[in-house]
């Protein structure tokens, strides 16, 4: 992300990729403008928040007209550095890691898993979803100019691997292990614990059931 990002509150910045994906789809459909109501329905963010977010982007919606799709798209591309491909490495080619290697991230944004690492000699040397799998011992040799790593190793391995990633110059880690990892201040970690998310969804369903709107 470029420096313009600094002025945008973090909560807004987190919604950027969501907006980007939807606006990109609209652009592909040939739509020239979009209202905050349409956006709100599609991305499930209330329209007041959308208007506030978009004011940070310098996009001022006009009443009865909405927002200019072309303008938004070029803003998002610039801000999310969509013109540049971000190189990503994946560590741990188990069930989850393998699924990610098969998943086509490029469809929606310009990130690409370029290489994967594992400790299992049966996996090392293979290619999964077009991505080469190297031995984790050789991590430092391959990780040049790689900004981001996805961590799908067993949780016991997470901290040790993280330290090596940081040493090798990785600045962002998407941690799919249940382990809480410790990093220096300049490293950003986003933690996604799938079982916690699932449990939390089930909890909310039970305790905070959503009411159906009348007439729907
Ligand atoms: P998951 O479903 O969580 O991906 P799994 O059950 O397929 O996991 P795990 O035991 O969680 O397998 O291990 C994930 C992957 O991480 C395996 O392919 C394993 O060989 C690999 N792995 C284990 N230790 C290391 C390590 N130190 N460095 C790199 N890869 C490792």
Automatic annotation (TrEMBL):
It holds the Pfam family Put_DNA-bind_N. GO terms for biological process: negative regulation of DNA-templated transcription; response to redox state. Its main location: cytoplasm. NAD(+) binds at residues 92-97. Residues 81-180 form the CoA-binding domain. Keywords: Cytoplasm, DNA-binding, NAD, Repressor, Transcription, Transcription regulation. GO terms for cellular component: cytoplasm. It comes from the Bacteria. GO terms for molecular function: DNA binding; DNA-binding transcription factor activity. InterPro entries: CoA-bd (IPR003781), NAD(P)-bd_dom_sf (IPR036291), Rex_bacilli-type (IPR058203), Rex_DNA-bd_C_dom (IPR009718), Tscrpt_rep_Rex (IPR022876), WH-like_DNA-bd_sf (IPR036388), WH_DNA-bd_sf (IPR036390). Residues 18-57 bind DNA. It is found in: Cytoplasm. Modulates transcription in response to changes in cellular NADH/NAD(+) redox state. Homodimer. Belongs to the transcriptional regulatory Rex family. NCBIfam families: PRK05472.1-3 (NF003989), PRK05472.1-5 (NF003991), PRK05472.2-3 (NF003994), PRK05472.2-4 (NF003995), PRK05472.2-5 (NF003996). This is Redox-sensing transcriptional repressor Rex. The lineage of its organism: Bacteria, Bacillati, Bacillota, Bacilli, Bacillales. The gene is rex.
